[in-house]
Structure formats: C-alpha cells, structure tokens
Amino acid sequence: MRVAPRPLVTVGIGLGYMAIVAVTWSFLGFEYDEVGSSTSTVVEGIVVPVAIGAVFLAAATSYLGWWGPALHEDMRAPKWLWAVPVFMFLPGLGFLLGGSGEADRSAGFLLALGIGCLLVGFSEEILTRGTGLVGLRGGFGEALSWFFSCLLFGLIHALNALFGQSVGSTVQQILIAFLAGSVFYITRRVSGTLVVCMLLHAWIDFTTFAFADAAVDAESPTVALAGAQWIAFVLALVGVAVVLRRASRASGRSADSLSAA
Length: 261
Known about the structure:
Elements: H1 7-28, H2 39-64, H3 67-71, H4 83-97, H5 107-137, H6 142-155, H7 167-191, H8 194-211, H9 221-226, H10 228-260
Helix pairs in contact: 1-2, 1-5, 2-5, 4-8, 4-10, 5-6, 5-8, 6-7, 7-8, 7-10
C-alpha cells in the first residue's frame, strides 16, 4: 500500500464522490424524482455523473494502492450466510417476472439503465465496502468499520434531498440503505470478494428502475417475492452479530497471545 489506511481517507473520498455527483447534477439541471422516467434521465441522472465518479474512485484507489484489500476479503463468514444475498436477489426476480409495465423499456432505455446500474454497483460498493472499508479498518475495529461503512452508504443518498426528493422519502431511503449496507457487508464476507456485492447491487437497481412501474396483481411474482428483502435484512443483522462476535473473540485471543509472549 502506498498510503496507510485511515478513516479520514474514507471521509475525503466520500465527500469527493458526492461533490462530483452534485456538481454534475447541478450543471445538467437534473431533478432526482425524474430519474428512470426516460432514457435521457437515466443518462443524465445516472450514467454521466456516476461514470465521472467511478473514474475518480478508481484513480483514488490506484493512487492509494488499495485494490487488493478493497476487492478481496480475508475475514470470511459462515457459509449459511449465503442466504442473505440469495434473499436480496429474489425481489428483483419478482420484478422481472411480474406484469407488463408502462415505463419506457426500449432497447436504448434498457442499455443505458444497464450501464448506469453497473456503474452504480461499482462506484457505491468500492466507495463504501471496498476502498472505504479499508480506510475505516485502518483506524477502527470491525464493529465500527461495519457501522460507519453502512452509515456512509446511507448518507450518500442524502444528496437526493437537494435535487428534488422530499425529505421524508430521503430519510426513508437513508434507513433502507443502511440496512442494505449490512446485506452487502455480509455478502462481501461470505463470498470473499467485493465483485459479488457490485453485481448484486447492480441487479437490485436495474430491476427496480426497469420494472417499478409494472402493472401487477395479487398473484404476481412481484408481490410474492417482495418480502424477501426484509428477510435478507433480518438475516444480515443476525449475520453481522455473528461475524463481529467472532472478530471480537479472535482479537481477544491475539491480545492474550501477545501478553503471554
């Protein structure tokens, strides 16, 4: 590593990314509530700002020399916690299999949305549970690193309130993002790689934006699988308690070994 990990680096990168998105949205005159309503709003609201942010994050990670620990996880979680990303995957499948929608689903729209969601998956994961988590671990124990990585994930969505989203909707989004952050944290720990988090994140955003306006009935898979997200949230919090307890015990054993020596 060229630069030693520390939390202030994570804070600086997070502020830099948010500033890039905010300046780009301001320049384009973008309103958040319009995102996903058409191909042009996907390009202006997602693809362009997040692509610029992704370049910034990739450059920062390269300069710091943190790609290895950002993408790979050495502290693994029990295999049963694979249930967390599986349950988080299911609501998107429900959207995909659900009724016909009224939104613009042209080939151009879906292509732009797919690119945009892949960029979001890369950027928000490398920021919060990749490079960001590396920096947090440089100054905090694992419990605080988990907490602040989830908090950062929530707070980057606070930006939406400055561009037309209601305060109430933004607060709700921040809380949901914090819970989702625990899902992605567990996904990183159980899979051993941030790449799975990036793909899951992109899948969730893509299916939500592409099919949120779908007309569904009570028998639709969309309805049947919607609750799987909340199962994922509960399992993720249980998983966090399990892995943090293990980390605490491992840290205690290491301290005992050092004192004995």
